[in-house]
Amino acid sequence: MVALLLILGLGGLAALYSERLHPGLPRWMSLAVCALALLCLLPTAGASGVAPGTWLQHLRVDWLPRLGISFELGLDGLSWLLVALSLLLGLIAVASSWDEIDFRPGLFQANLLWTLTGVCGVFLALDLVLFFLFWEVMLVPMYLLIAIWGHEDRARAAMKFFIFTQASGLLMLVAIVTLAVTVGAGGQLSFSYFDLLGGALEPRTAYLLMLGFFLAFAVKLPAFPFHTWLPDAHTQAPTAGSVLLAGILLKTGAYGLLRFCLPLFPQASAEFAPVAVALGAAGVIYGAVLAFAQRDFKRLVAYSSVSHMGFVLLGLYAFNALAVQGSIMQMVAHGVSTAALFMMAGALQHRLHTRDMARMGGLWAQAPRMGACALFFAVASLGLPGLGNFVAEFLVLAGLFAVRPWMTLLAALGLITAAIYALWMIQRTFQGPAREELSPTDFGAREMLAMAAMMFALLWLGLYPQPVLDIARPVVDHLLQFDFSVREAL
Amino acid sequence: MNLIALVPALPLLSATALMVTTGRLPRRLVAWLGAGSVGLAALCTALVAAAYGDAGGPYTVHLWTWFAVGGLEPGIAFYVDGLALVMMSVITGVGFLIHLYSIEFMGEDASFSRYFAYMNLFVGAMLILVMADNLLLLYLGWEGVGLCSYLLVGFWYRDPANGAAARKAFVVTRVGDTAMILGLFLLFTQLHTLQIQPLMAAAADEWAGGGWLPTLAALLLLGGAVGKSAQLPLHTWLPDAMAGPTPVSALIHAATMVTAGVYLIARTHTLFLLSPAALGAVAWIGVLTLLLAACAALAQRDIKRILAYSTISQIGYMFLALGVGAFAPGVFHLVTHAFFKALLFLAAGAIIHCLHHEHDIFRMGGLRTRLPLVFWVFLIGAAALAALPFTAGFYSKDAILLSAWEADPWLWTGGLLGALLTGIYSFRLIFVVFFGEATHEPDRRPGWKMALPLSLLALLSLTGGAISLPLAPAFPVSTGHAVNHTVEYIGIAVPLLGLGIAYLFFLGRQLPVDALAGRGVGARLRRFWQRGWGFDTLYQVLWVTPYRALAHLLRGEPVDALYNLLAALCRQGHRGLAALQTGALRWYATTLTFALVVVIAIVLRGAM
């Protein structure tokens, strides 16, 4: 685990300086670093549990013992899945920005790798201070990616992204410190996840602390109505930035809810569940309606992300195996399908110098391979059975139906609205009369390779998702041991 | 039985091969792959069917477990009984003939390979639908055929109207599908399985007949069936779906996909039998649909739209049969309808093919002598559609009407009225298209690849009534009532009456059709029917316009206004405070003194 983080972090440095040797070198460095990190990760999949419960790997080194802060990392099925997804999408992100970046390619790749470092750290950290540290680490390079290599309105979008995340992160910091102080009162102060689990808390305190965590994660997820940074950030970010942002950074929010918010405050979460589920359902519908309203290809995909991440929120707050597994599936499947759609957006912009769909149309004739790829990921996005997103959405809704049938009905409307925006997108870009002024070159071998890999992944997730479910299963079982029933008010 | 798994696998493999090669294969090979894979699947089906007769008993094939979470363990697994076998035979058999026909029909199309890729994908998905052993896998096939329908309706993507029709087909059926998946959730939550046979057994065991749970579950499934089978109130997509190539209409929008709803209800009939209310809803939806669609068919001018409305109407008959508990006659009508409606569509396609893409029947005329083969097969198809005695359609429709009479004479009356209208519009089509004066000269004749499927389907439309389907163990045995002969004679006479009326109106011209439909109320009614009873307008006002308006309203992201307000407040605060920082020492000293006085005043006041 440490090796993995070191490879990514130092790889970033190496990429930064390799630029001096040759401007084409950093992207190869990035690819190599991601591949190497992936190699580090692979053997751990089969490792047996080392630490308590479900952990594949666990590491704890004292850092600031007087304050109870340690360098504690842990890898379980959930972390494994998300780290693997991050690294794979890292490869995709590098591939998608292959010849898009001319300005300071070394710095670009370094920021890319540092973002990945932060993300992987978030997925591995088990000390809450360390977690917060990584949470901030992934923020800064992402900010730079948007602010330096973004599109026309990049400064504002980057600032908005930064302020939203930072403000909510501060709430989480306050909650973390309060939690550690409250639980550790009279004894040894500790920020370790395991020491904080099951800590005795006043219901009122627990509720407030839970809200602190929830807000930070809900902004990142993003849940309605904290999502407004996302369309701007996505639209303005360079392709690789969008791929990382949608594919992985959003998942840190979901991961945080699953890892920290729910197990640390089971009772408070149960009380809060109606609100969370309502926000999730609202996000599903709202995101889909707004996606339909967009003219900008990237904004459309961004809003579809809001819609899809609503399903994650729904699943997590249903508190049963079906729905939580569905949420985890949705994280993985959405990571792949949205990354592909952003790559498509980047490819279109690179070729046509516009993201405005009103100026596209009939592209299928000139670029059938692009059209076929776009169609594939559009139908994945609308939840076609046989592809990963369907399994995820089905599990979430099936699980939710058992506890909240009316909310399920509302969220299921999202299946219809998703069909509307996804097909409308295909119509406006690839179908309709061909325009003579547009003559994009079709996908080449490099792009097709990336697309084919993601198609294969979605088909695999859609037809035989069992390996993913099996990896995540101990985590889900562990989570569901907590008591999520609402206690009667005394 | 590896043969069983091969049946859907062959077309799917061929579709994959065609998609991966993205049109780089030579046309000949594409044709062989496209039609050949379906032909082989038909052969496999025939072998399975032959063995089924000997060995008996349903086959189950478990390929792998899709996923297993929280008690839900749907398999990629097939369950082949008589009902599934009947459906498989129709899909692969009729499907093969249509593929063969397509080789010639689509011969000059630039996207030949893409066409066959979609068609094969469709056949594969449809086979999965009817062979699935659990409702989730059925849903996979269900959505898969919906996707293929979307792709094929919008096949000629350059015309935005085709794209709109394709999206309409997908979205309208998705509305039904969403109801259906909610039904799946309900069934799983209550009965803890989605595997069809155990599920039906559990429903029969645990649910009392007539309770609200079985009714709700059945109605939700019915929602899916209504969408896919283009019944009221979700039928509006089918007439527009005629924008696709004509063999597509024959395969998807006549013979197979649109009857998936009938299959679904037949497959889950145990559940429907638990709920008389839901069953009644099925019957009445069927009757209303068959009447409304038959009237609409009377007023159309486009040959494919006539056939589309006729399909809606005929599926209405199938729903009527299911609703009165006559499951076997309903499925029987599904089969005969697949024969004669595929025949009619293919024949219409031959006309369109030979007549420079002409769709308007009033610009055809006199084709009897110019396209004799097409005339004869079309005549046979129309006779079967109208259920004239001794055609295949006669046997199946007769059985449905008799069952309807036993259940409720009102339902029977509706069905009978529909039969009259069917007779009129079928022969209106024949008389207008094939008789009268020729206005257009066909520029070619259908070749053997078109003629052979037409002839075979014509043969089946004539003799299909004699086929006995192996449905007996799948459905409850109907109590053999004594056949009421008067009812039977009326059933035979009414289609003939329809034929006679059509003759008087459109060929003999004894009755003034133009005077009737050209002025006043008649003209208004004709236009109303031509617009399909105004459903499209209604839905436009009810759903489409409000949704667009909502999207337009939200486009500016109203939620952001809140955050912008916050940002504006901060900026104002910044301006206000920045204004204080003037750099003038005198101003600082004044404010400092003043503030000190205020503070001291407050402190003193507090101390007192």
From TrEMBL, chain B:
Occurrences of domain NADH-Ubiquinone oxidoreductase (complex I) chain 5 N-terminal (ranges): 66-116
Membrane topology: Multi-pass membrane protein
Pfam families membership: Proton_antipo_M, Proton_antipo_N
Any single biological process term in GO: electron transport coupled proton transport
Gene3D superfamilies documented for this protein: 1.20.5.2700
Cell compartment(s), UniProt: Endomembrane system; Membrane
InterPro entries assigned: NADHpl_OxRdtase_5_subgr, ND/Mrp_TM, NU5C-like, Proton_antipo_N
GO MF entries: NADH dehydrogenase (ubiquinone) activity; NADH dehydrogenase activity
NADH:quinone oxidoreductase/Mrp antiporter transmembrane domain: residues covered: 132-413
Alphabetical UniProt keywords: Membrane, Transmembrane, Transmembrane helix
Segments traversing the membrane: 29-52, 85-103, 115-132, 138-157, 169-189, 209-227, 248-266, 278-299, 306-328, 334-352, 373-395, 415-436, 448-469, 489-507, 585-604
Listed NCBIfam families: NDH_I_L, PRK06590.1
Protein name: NADH-quinone oxidoreductase subunit L
Species, as recorded: Parahaliea mediterranea
Gene that produces this protein: nuoL
